[in-house]
Amino acid sequence: EVQLVESGGGLVQVGGSLRLSCAASGSTFDDYAIGWFRHYPGKEREGVSCIGTTNDVTHYINSVKGRFTISSDHAKKIVYLQMNSLKLEDTAVYYCASGAGCAEAMGIVYLLGNIDWGQGTQVTVSS
Question: Which residues of the chain have pLDDT under 70?
Fold first, then answer.
C-alpha cells in the first residue's frame, strides 16, 4: 500500500498559478504511477494528469494541456502538478493517487491496477 499526502491547494485568482505536491511513502517509488484527479460536487472524479515514475511518461486531459505540468522528483518521492493560467472551471478538490500504471484513451486519463488515494486538497479559482 502506498501512502499519499497532498499539499499546495488554496485560493487563487483567474490566470494565477498553484503548485500541488503529492508526497509518497510505503512502497518503492519507481514501481508505480501517480495521477492527479479532481472532483466536482455531484460528479465522478476526473483524471487530470498522470506520470509513470519508472519512465516519466506523462498524460493530460485536453482541458489542461499547455497549462498544467506534472513532474516527478524521484529523490524526494514527490510528484508535482504545476497549474498555470487557472480558470474558474479548475475549481475542485484535487487528489493524487497511485496505481500500477497510467494511460490516456479517448481523452480520459486513468490509472491501472489497485489504486491508493490521498486525502485531497481544495483548489479554488476566483474571478
Answer: none
